[in-house]
Structure formats: structure tokens, C-alpha cells
Amino acid sequence: MSHRKDLIGIEDLTAKEIIHYLDIADRFASVLERPIPIVPTLRGKTILTLFFEASTRTQISFSVAAKRLSADVINFSKTSSSVAKGETIIDTARNIEAMKIDGVVVRHSAPGAAKYLAENIDAFVINGGDGSHEHPTQALLDIFTMRQHFKDIAGLKVLIVGDILHSRVARSNIFGLKKLNAQVTICAPPTLIPIGIESLGVNVHYNLDEIIDKYDVVMALRIQLERQEAGLFPSIREYRNLYGLTRERVKRMKTGGIIMHPGPTNRGVEIDPDVADGDRSVILTQVKNGVALRMAVLFVHAGGKIE
Ligand code: CP
């Protein structure tokens, strides 16, 4: 399959392209089970992780993924770079070009930053999260984890609970899950739901207790604590009482239903500690799958060929 130079968002992809990433990730998941989990596929390539915002999972797992593919990896963060001295993203891009980097994974607070970078450099660009726009590899690893668990995404009932308004993870998941014919419902206080979200083909609910027993997957999103200061919900305690994944609520989920969370979690706010660590939780499986999925993304965009 021919592929795009860059991965900016799930909105741009076809269902076939999404499945292609997932199928390749399946192969790399097997590689990661070997005693020596390294393949020479990207030997001689250099990947830069260019993170203007904090990250634990995304930056580390791209870095591990690149190393498992035998690529050279350079990790860059805002605080340790000349960006902290006022250098612009386009100057940064020109320096990347001068150093003959093959691929860049970028995270930035501005929606559109990854696209802008992609349009200005020859290296392939993977969006590691741009503001509230998209986080495509998070959605791909989430969908990969759902497919691993349930075999088929079509018809799967997925509930996303939390701050949909500011969530790039929710947007990317909604695009991907709808393209693969899942049924997607979102649930949050009305102030945390974007106007017109129904046009993406999702159902909207406000009362978690009325619906939690209906879903195969319940995905909690991080409540960004600064949102409370902006007056978007009355208090952390009230949010937890109405929307938190508590032990009592989770007991009412469907048999076989799973709990997901992209991380980082606010334990005791959107998810209780015993739920995050409980039998239904696949949160660490998501993190584990992130490496195989990101190996697949780097492989595809570096022009790798499956024998
Ligand atoms: N899920 C996610 O993007 O986590 P990080 O912010 O730690 O990368």
C-alpha cells in the first residue's frame, strides 16, 4: 500500500489505512515477545522526538519503538533546547533539515503545529499530539487494544467519559472508531462537550449512571484540573460523584466490558485507584501496545516493506 509522507490525524485516514497500521502492529507485537526484541528494519535512519509539551508515554514509547527497529533516536524537549531562548518552530525545522533527520515525532500545544512542520520539511512527521486537535497514535493504540480484546471493532459499543471539549484523544478515537463502524457514545457535563459533536456520528449523554451498563469499552479521560478554575464544572468532588469510574459504578458494567484510559490518570477523580488497577482495566496493556503500534507507524512512514 502506498502511504502518506506524514501522519497528522485520524480524520485524514481511510479505514483501510487504519487497518494497515493495526495489522503491522500485530507483527511487531510478536517481535516484542522474542528474547531479543529488536529488528534491523530502520538501521541507518534517524528519528527525532520533538516535544514542546510534557509527555511520559508518547515520547518514551516512540523512543523505545525506534530503538527496537534499530533506528538512531534523538530526544528533544522544549526546556533543554534553544526554543526556550525564543527560537521558532520553523527555525527548529530548518535545523532538522540541515541535520538530515529522517522522521520527526512532534508534540505541540498549538493545533496545526504538526501539519505546519510537515509542510516545511522533507522528513516525515508524526503528530504526537497538537493542542486539542488530534493524537493519532494514541487512538491507533487504543483501537489496536480494543481489536486485540474483542477481535472486531465493527458494532463495538464504546463510551468515552470526560473532558471531550479539550481532548485530542477523544477526537482521534471518535474519527477512528466511526471509520471502523463502532458505536460511539460520549458522556460528560454539558460544558465539557463541544457544540455540534453529534455531526461526527456519536451519541451524547449526560448521565453516566443511566448508561454505564451498556458498553463493551468505557474510556475515561483525564480531567484537566485547571478546567475547574475556568468554571466548566463546579468541583472535583462533584465531578467524581457524577462521572468518576468508581468501584460501585464499574460493578454495573457489562460482563466482559473493559476500562481504558490514555493516561496520565488523576486517581480518585475520573478513575478510582482500585478501578485503574482492577480486573477490567487494560490501561497498562494500552501502554505496552503503544510500542508495537508506534513501531508500525515509524515503519510505514520510513517506507518499510513487509516481506
Ligand atoms: N497518553 C499520552 O499522550 O500520554 P503522555 O502525555 O504521557 O504522552
TrEMBL record:
SUPFAM superfamilies xref list: Aspartate/ornithine carbamoyltransferase
E.C. numbers: 2.1.3.2
This protein's GO CC annotations: cytosol
An example Gene Ontology biological process: amino acid metabolic process
All copies of domain Aspartate/ornithine carbamoyltransferase Asp/Orn-binding, residue ranges: 155-299
One Pfam family hit: OTCace_N
Domain Aspartate/ornithine carbamoyltransferase carbamoyl-P binding: 5-148
Reaction equation(s) it catalyzes: carbamoyl phosphate + L-aspartate = N-carbamoyl-L-aspartate + phosphate + H(+)
Domain of life: Bacteria
Binding site for carbamoyl phosphate: 57-58, 107, 135, 138, 263-264
Pathway(s) annotated for this protein in UniProt: Pyrimidine metabolism; UMP biosynthesis via de novo pathway; (S)-dihydroorotate from bicarbonate: step 2/3
Key words of the record: Pyrimidine biosynthesis, Transferase
GO function terms (MF aspect): amino acid binding; aspartate carbamoyltransferase activity
Positions annotated to bind L-aspartate: 85, 168, 222
Enzyme class: transferase
Family statement drawn from the similarity comment of this UniProt entry: Belongs to the aspartate/ornithine carbamoyltransferase superfamily. ATCase family.
Assembly and oligomerization: Heterododecamer (2C3:3R2) of six catalytic PyrB chains organized as two trimers (C3), and six regulatory PyrI chains organized as three dimers (R2).
Role, per record: Catalyzes the condensation of carbamoyl phosphate and aspartate to form carbamoyl aspartate and inorganic phosphate, the committed step in the de novo pyrimidine nucleotide biosynthesis pathway.
HAMAP family: Asp_carb_tr
Protein's name according to its UniProt entry: Aspartate carbamoyltransferase
